[in-house]
Every structure is written in structure tokens, then in C-alpha cells.
Amino acid sequence: MKHLFFLLTLLLCLPLAAQQTYHAQAFSGRTFSDSSFIYKEIRWEGVQRVLIVGYQTPDFAKGNQPLHIPSSVTHEGKNYNVWCIASEAFRNLYTAESIVVEDGIERILDHAFEDCVGLKSISIPASVQWVGEGLFSGCHQLEKVVVDPKNRWLDSRDDSNAIIYSDEDELLAACPATKIPSSVKKIGNEAFSGCYMLEQIDIPEGVKSIENSAFEGCSGLRRLSLPESLREIGWEAFSGCSSLKSIFIPKNVEQIANVNIFSGCTTLSSIVVDDRNTFYDSREHCNGIVRKADSMLVATCRATTMPESLKGLYGECFYGTNMHSIRIPKSLESLSGNSFFGCKEIDTLYVAEGNPAFISPEGSNAILTKDGKTLVVGCRTTEIPSCVEKIGELAFYGRYEKPVLCFPKNIKRVSESSFENCNGLYKVVIPPSVTKLDGEVFYNCHNLMNVQIQARVPEIPRSAFENCYRLKVVTIADGTKAIGQKAFAGCTRLTHISLPQSIEKIGEDAFMDCPYAKNLKEK
Prior knowledge:
Blueprint: H1 2-10, E1 14-15, E2 25-26, E3 30-34, E4 37-44, E5 47-55, E6 67-69, E7 72-75, E8 78-85, E9 98-101, E10 107-108, E11 121-124, E12 130-131, E13 144-147, E14 154-155, E15 163-165, E16 170-173, E17 186-187, E18 200-202, E19 209-210, E20 223-225, E21 232-233, E22 246-249, E23 255-256, E24 270-273, E25 280-281, E26 289-291, E27 296-299, E28 312-313, E29 325-328, E30 348-351, E31 358-359, E32 366-369, E33 374-378, E34 390-391, E35 404-406, E36 413-414, E37 427-430, E38 436-437, E39 450-453, E40 459-460, E41 473-476, E42 482-483, E43 496-498, E44 505-506
Parallel strand pairs: 5-8, 6-9, 8-10, 9-11, 10-12, 11-13, 16-17, 17-19, 18-20, 19-21, 21-23, 22-24, 27-28, 29-30, 33-34, 34-36, 35-37, 36-38, 37-39, 39-41, 40-42, 41-43, 42-44
Antiparallel strand pairs: 1-2, 3-4, 4-5, 7-8, 14-15, 15-16, 25-26, 26-27, 31-32, 32-33
């Protein structure tokens, strides 16, 4: 329930950088300033509320006094109580060494003090009922976190230098000086995120859950000891722990998220699961985590190999893994482009002979369905075979590096996000054989300059070329009837586009921020 409340609150707190301010927030409501603090007056649950959304100048830090974040303010003769510190409100306030949050404030939202690199101490009052995620991310000098002992909801028990949700024994916000109390049962979302000076940590017995991104960005973390009490590990729990070389998964872990918990762990080369674990194993010394119930690979590192008994790839199990060569064993029955999301450096893809579901034609460096008609996964050296009729979803995400993309003559469909983030692309030619393009197909291809759509596709789909900001020339064949929402949004250099007479509909923001948009007439 508390997480639901937080999500609802977060909808009010989308960050927007403002000139000479520290992330003033985008709320609907009146903004005013007082003593360098920026406030926003909003209406929430039928009640008029005031939030602190930013700070204008770090000059206060010329002295040795702490920064007091006020719980009330008088403006134009009217007194206001401050309800909340908004998301990223004090982000990058690098000169603050000590912060005191005054009593009366009830909420502190996500990343409120992120990258306050000079911050050494902070005091949380009795009135604060909830704090968001990543509160102290990047605060590498923070060594003292104190919650008022009178607080009914939060505490910093045992001089832990952390903020703990009392009723659930959940550690919500930590710093490099945090010592996890033995009474804690859960490490919350992004609790230790950005603690890049943290070199080692022993998680005590009693902790049952490590939540999403709990240790994300702890790039200095070299040693991590997990307790036998641990049962759940959330997605990207150890993402970006680039100094971590080995990890041992204890016997009672029974649930691991579907997004690689070790993404961005560039030096990790040893993953070992306790032999006594009844849910997972690291069979055949694969340096990965395999779910026993269905033989699905759920987490990987750069040294992971796929064991011969493997049946499938779970979720984004290779996400953020620095792999150069992938061998699909004969036993593997299921995989998708989603499995290799974010793996940009793959050079070689190979399917073992006799696999019942997939093939890899000689010289293709691609994974195809058994009938050869769908390309499921490609890499930066792939040669698309002439038999391919469909490019699968996310098939080349971030990996196609050739300057010109010419499809084989039999191609009929190019699926969603199949070439998203492929910044090596310069020119794309979509042949007449294509009958459908799916959404975001070339989204974020920053170097793409020339697109020729020779196919009479019914629609240029939503966000198909969004944020291709170097795109200059687009030709579209006659017969296309619609331009989807944001199809060319953010193409800030698009100066020429030939729209055929067959166009009947142009979607919302289809040409947003395009210089040529003023010359277009919606039909």
C-alpha cells in the first residue's frame, strides 16, 4: 500500500531543470521563492499543499552553518506549511555539508538529495512519514544519517546511518557509512544506489529481500556477502557494480527478477549457486543462474556459458552483459531479442547443430527460427540471409553498425524496436516487399540521415524515427495512408520529406520539432 501511495505521489513530481535552480519541479500550480528556496502550491486530494521544489543558489555554504529546510514559509503576508520535498529538489547542491529537515514536513520524494557530493550529515524530523528511492544516490561523503527518535514511521536504529521503515523493517535509504542492523528484513529499492565509494558490505542474517536496483551504481563494491536468510532478489539489484568479481547465491533464494541482476557488472566472472538451493543452480560451472523448475537461465555475467541442458532464456537475462560470443546449445527451445537487450558488443552468434527450434546459417552470425523465415537475434557482424521474411522484435537493438541497411528481397515485416538505438546506421532502404513496419523500429538512431521507404505500408508507425535528430531526407511511397503519432518527432534536421497524395491522417506530434513541419498540411 505504501508503494502505491508513493507511485501516486510521484505522478505529481516530474523533474524539470530550471535556469539557476536545482531541479525545480514541473507541477501545475503557482511557484514562488523565499530565502533561495523555490516553492510550488498545488492541490492534492482536495487540499491545498505547498512543496519545496528547488533551491536557487549554494551561497549559504560560505559559512559553517547547516542548511535548514523550512517546514513553513510566509509569502505575500500568508503563512504556508510545507508538506513535501519534491523529487530531485536539492539534486547537485554540492556545497551543502549539513542539512536539517525541519519538523512538519511529511514526505521526501525520489532522489531529493542525489549528487549532493559535499553532504556529510542529514537530520530527518519526527514528522516525515515516507521517503522515496535513491534519496542519497551519489552522496559519497555522507556519513551521518539521523532520524528523530520520536518519529513513528521511520528510524535510524543502532546508529545505522540509514533510514528504515519501522513497521516493515525495510532499509529505505543508505550511505557509504551505513551498517545494516540485524533486525532489517528488506533492502529497499535503490537503497544503496550510487554509493560508489562503498567497497565491501556484509548483509546480516535476517534480511529476506533485496529489492530493485538496491545496490545499483556501487562501482567500488569489491566484496558482497549475502545471508542464508535471503529469499528474493529484485531486478538490476547489483547493476553497475563494476568492481565485483565473484558472488555466491545462498541456499534459500527462491525468487530472482526477470531483468539481469548483474547488468553492468563488467568484471564479474564467477557466479556460484549453493548446491543446496532447491530453486536455482549454476550447473556445469556456467557462471550463470539457472532456474531448476524449467531450466531457464535467469542471470548472467561476461563469463557465462549456456549449459547443454538449458531450455530457455528468462526475461532480459543477458541485459547489460559484456558478451562477444553467444553459443546456443542444442537443448534451447525458447529465446527472443529481449534476452539480449543492451548487449551491444556481440560479434558471433552460433546455434549448435540439431537444435529443434533455431538455426544459424553459415556466415550469417544470426539466430533464425527453424524455418529460416524470422531473424530472432542479430549482432554487429550479421549478414541477413535471403530467406528471412521477418525481423523480430528487438532483434538488432543497439547492435547493427553497418552504415547502410538494405533488406533482402523477401522481407515482409520489420518488428517493434528491431533497430532501435543503432547509431551506426546512416541510410535505410525499405524495399517494396515490406507490408508492415512496427512501432519504434528505428527509434533513437542518432546518425541516420537518409530513409527511403519504397514499400506501400499502410502506416509509418508511432515513433518509428523519433529522435533520429540527424535525419535530413525521407521519401515515402504512394499508397501509405497514415503517419503515426511521433513518427518523426525530434528529427530536428529533417528538411525534406516527400509525402504521397495517399496520406489521409497525420498523428499527434508526428513531426514535433521538425523544421519542415511548418510546410506540412495535415490531410
